[in-house]
Amino acid sequence: MIRLCQSDSAFTIQQYYDALQAQGIGCLIRNQFISGAAGDLPIQDTQPELWLMDKDDLTMAKKVLNELSSDSDEGEWVCSSCNEPQEPAFHLCWQCQQPRNSA
Ligand SMILES: [Zn+2]
User: Fold this and answer.
1) Confidence (pLDDT) at 28
2) What is the pLDDT of residue 24?
3) Cβ atoms 11, 68 nearer than 8 A
4) Pick among 1.10.10, 2.60.40, 3.30.70, 1.25.10: CATH of 2-74
5) 26 C-alpha to center of ligand 1: Å?
6) What's the pTM value of the predicted model, to 2 decimals?
7) What is the pLDDT of residue 44?
8) Which residues in the chain come in under a pLDDT of 50?
9) CA 16 to CA 26: how far, in whole Å?
């Protein structure tokens, strides 16, 4: 499995999940129900995450999420760590997991 993205919004993750399922892309949500433990864990470990069952689906999954967020103001961004171009929907680099706003 490979982590596709995470969000502080369980609603957003659920939207992504539904969109991927509709395309027949196997995925699952992690950290959806543990918000009660947030006080004891680093925040990045408690945010809902979307995982792909098969990393071969990554390109298709990125395309689906990109279309889902196509009406967003946000554009593509480039990872500050590995310089990989990123889709607007992602908050972490899909390649090296670097957070989007990290310098
Ligand atoms: Zn990166």
Assistant:
1) 95
2) 95
3) no
4) 3.30.70
5) 24
6) 0.57
7) 53
8) 103
9) 12
